[in-house]
Amino acid sequence: MPRMPDRMSAISSALQHLENAMRAMVEENAALRDQLQGIVEKAGHFFNGPQSRGRSAGGARLRDGAPRKRGRAFKFTGEQASEFRKQVEGGKSAASLAKELKVSLPTMYNTLKRAGWRGRGQRGRGRPVRGARPRDGMPRKRGRAFKFTGDQASEFRKQVEGGKSAASLAKELKVSLPTMYNTLKRAGWRGRK
């Protein structure tokens, strides 16, 4: 039993050393934080002029009285944005311009809108809606591509009008019956009379 006090004194001594080391680290951390704060303030003076400590009351304003932009800085200047707007209004697509400049499409749209571009909503001024623009005299098809060409569809129509059933033709070609009916309608078939 006499060894118990020796162990306790060794443990209390180790804890005392640990406490002293922790206090030294806390003091060193506070000194480093003060040094870093001084560096940040000097850098702020260098880039922005003298700044007051803490947040300014109300919104920060530029010299001309306009509110300062919040968030991330613009990727392009106002002059560049105006040039991009001229290119897009001249016929170049915003997507191709964004790809050329290696920026995302939303970034390009935001840049164009900042330059006063009204967007793609100008279709009503003499330009037909995309889906209704003619292609070889036929309106553009929406959705999936056709399974069969126009010549094939005409051949199927002749077979069905000759007496072959649409169901047997669909089964032979391994397509669904609705697909076969749509193909026949595209070829001008009006249905059984």
Tally of strands: 2
Order of helices and strands: HHHHEEHHH
Shape: elongated
Percent range of helical residues: 40-55%
Low-confidence stretches: none
Query: From the alpha-carbon coordinates, what is the Rg to the nearest angstrom?
Result: 38 Å
> What portion of residues belong to β-strands?
under 5%
Order of strands in the sheet with most strands? 1-2
Structural class: mainly alpha
What is the averaged pLDDT score?
Answer: 79
For the termini, the CA-CA separation is 114 Å
The major pleated sheet works out as: 2 strands, antiparallel
Number of helices: 7
Task: Based on the model shown, name its key terms.
2 strands, mainly alpha, elongated, 193 residues, 7 helices
Summed up:
By secondary structure, the chain is mainly alpha-helical. Helix content is 55%, strand content 2%. The protein has a two-stranded antiparallel sheet.
Notes on the protein architecture:
By secondary structure, this protein is mainly alpha-helical. Among the domains are: 78-119; 146-193. Helix content is 55%, strand content 2%. The protein contains seven helices and two strands, in the order H-H-H-H-E-E-H-H-H. It has a two-stranded antiparallel sheet with strand order 1-2. A hairpin with a 2-residue loop joins strand 1 and strand 2. Helix 2 crosses helix 4, helix 3 packs across helix 4 (105-114) and helix 6 (166-173) packs across helix 7.
